[in-house]
Amino acid sequence: MSARVDAARKMFNAFQSGDVATAMGEFHPECQVHEADSLAYGGTHKGHEGFMTIMEIMGESLDVSVSDQEVFDAGDTVVIRVQATFVSRKSGRKLCMPLIEIYKYEGDGDKVIDADIYYKDAGAVADLARDTEVVATA
């Protein structure tokens, strides 16, 4: 198993336990994070500040947890597949779906330089964040 796979697992576990500082330490200061445009926090976010903006906007309306983590080593890329559970802070409604995150590393670097996030149904997550009716996806 590569050091990058270990680092990706460390990052996910840190986020899951609420240790954002440790998780953020796995990202390059100039990283780019790409989220689905349909989300309130959608678009490309740059650097640690941009990533924290995603966390803040998402956290205003949703609690997020992940399980069933699978991590794949693809050289300068690490792919993570998880089962994500989103819960509306307003209504308590829940949505579960697979989520894929693709982390690119630059050269021999050990920090994520580019992160691309793929939701099975980003529209359903956006609806839940707005607290409109959602049907859970498997």
CATH fold node name:
Nuclear Transport Factor 2, Chain: A
Number of domains: 1
Output the structural class.
alpha+beta
Please estimate the helix content.
25-40%
Contiguous low-pLDDT stretches (5 residues minimum) are none
Structure in a nutshell:
The chain has 138 residues and is of the alpha+beta class.
Account of the protein in words:
The chain has a six-stranded mixed beta sheet with strand order 2-1-6-5-4-3. The protein starts with a helix and ends in an 8-residue tail after the last helix. It has helices at residues 3-16, 20-24, 47-61, 122-130; strands at 27-35, 43-46, 62-73, 77-88, 94-105, 112-119. A hairpin with a 6-residue loop joins strand 5 and strand 6. The mean pLDDT is 90. 31% of the residues lie in helices and 41% in strands. The protein has one domain (3-130): Nuclear Transport Factor 2, Chain: A (Roll), CATH 3.10.450.50. The relative contact order is 0.19. The protein contains four helices and six strands, in the order H-H-E-E-H-E-E-E-E-H. It is of the alpha+beta class.
